[in-house]
Amino acid sequence: MKIGIVLQSNSPERVWNTFRFALTSLKASHSVSIFLMSEGSELDGIQDTEHFDISKKVSEFKELSGVLYACGTCIKLRGKEDAGVCPISTMSDLLTIVEESDKVLVF
Fold it and tell me: Quick check: 53 and 23 in contact, CB under 8 A?
């Protein structure tokens, strides 16, 4: 199954749970694409905490061939064009994810 996820939050717990679900899906042999938009495009600035090891989850997601995109407009609004967390994308890319996914979730 192809799973598309739109992550619009920079809340450490919500981001952590999003990646936990994505990892569970990848380990169950599903393909997963995550599109970061709004506050979600601030992923690179979210610090790990005692309870939420976000950087580890993101690394594992990439290692398991999860695909990560970021809204170019959201990145530019935040002055993070050089962050390099993932490819800068467009609404057309998000539309493709939605069209090609069997399920789409928004966190």
Answer: no
What does the CA dihedral 51, 55, 56, 61 come to, rounded to 10 degrees?
A: 120
Q: How many domains does the chain have?
A: 1
User: According to the model, what pLDDT value does residue 91 have?
Assistant: 94
CATH code of the domain in which 85 resides: 3.40.1260.10
49 three-class SS: coil
Q: Which two tokens stand for residue 20?
A: 């936990």
> Is the distance from CB of 20 to CB of 27 less than 8 angstroms?
no
- The residue range of the domain holding 21 is 2-106
pTM for the full model? 0.92
